[in-house]
Write a structure and sequence with these properties.
The complex is a heterodimer of chains A (115) and B (111). Chain A is 0% helix and 52% strand. Chain A contains no helices and 11 strands. By secondary structure, chain A is mainly β. Chain A has strands at residues 5-7, 10-13, 19-24, 31-38, 42-50, 53-57, 64-68, 74-78, 87-94, 105-106, 110-114. In chain B, the strands form 2 sheets. In chain B, strands 2, 4, 5, 9, 10 and 11 form a 6-stranded mixed beta sheet that branches. Chain B has a 5-stranded antiparallel beta sheet with strand order 1-3-8-7-6, with no helix packed on it. The radius of gyration of chain B is 13 Å and the shape is globular. The chains are: A mainly beta (115), B mainly beta (111). The interface between A and B is medium-sized, with 24 and 23 residues.
Chain lengths: 115, 111
């Protein structure tokens, strides 16, 4: 158990809908990262937040957005969902200092199925 | 644009044998990570490599980094069935918090 929690574990929804995925980092970690894993795209870095501030964006679609709250949990919002958004979404957290070098601890993931 | 290539994509090996997984990347980077993923599970961090010539070992796995060749290797010594998993390398884009993952190597160790 990495100490990173994600809810829900599974989510089934229809095209065009909007969903919110939630992540709680390990106690004391200030950095949260979001990743998408799908069969055709592999593992992709989406976005990184540090202490409430966006630090980096990867291949995140404009229909997707994220935020990190004062209590450090993070939410990934996916809107106007398409079939191709079906994937596993992971969040990860890393140590509290603002550094590029720390290892990341991954949550169990949320499996999103868009029908 | 940073590209990361892993090979082989699939690896089936006998217990007790040695093998190496390769991770090549296309532009300069300041850090490289190796992860393990079991089927249906999340990613587990194995190694973080931060400098040229860095070598780290944990049990039967050893990772190394050659930043001049833009190459990292994950060497498996005397494989055992428990090492069966998918292994990913991930490269940090220099000076940023962005990461690019390799395609993964699915390793199956046969008893």
């Amino acid at each position: 158990d990495s100490g990173v929690t994600q809810t829900p574990k599974h989510l089934i929804t229809a095209t065009g809908q909007r969903v919110t995925l939630r992540c709680s980092p390990r106690s004391g970690d200030l950095s949260v990262y979001w990743y998408q894993q799908s069969l055709d795209q592999g593992l992709q870095f989406l976005i990184h937040y540090y202490n409430g501030e966006e630090r980096a964006k990867g291949n995140i679609l404009e229909r997707f957005s994220a935020q990190q709250f004062p209590d450090l949990h993070s939410e990934l919002n996916l809107s106007s969902l398409e079939l191709g958004d079906s994937a596993l979404y992971f969040c990860a957290s890393s140590e509290s200092r603002d550094s590029l070098s720390y290892e990341q601890y991954f949550g169990p993931g949320t499996r999103l199925t868009v029908t | 644009e940073l590209k990361v290539e892993q090979n082989p994509l699939f690896l089936s090996m006998q217990e007790g044998k040695n093998y190496t997984i390769y991770c090549n990347y296309s532009t300069t980077s300041d850090r490289l990570y190796w992860y393990r993923q079991d089927p249906g599970k999340s990613l587990e961090s194995l190694f973080v490599l931060l400098s040229n010539g860095a070598v780290k070992q944990e049990g039967r796995l050893m990772a190394s980094l050659d930043t001049k060749a833009r190459l990292s290797t994950l060497h498996i010594t005397a494989a055992v069935h428990d090492l069966s998993a998918t292994y990913f390398c991930a490269v940090g884009m220099g000076g940023t918090y962005k990461y690019i993952f390799g395609t993964g190597t699915r390793l199956k160790v046969l008893a």
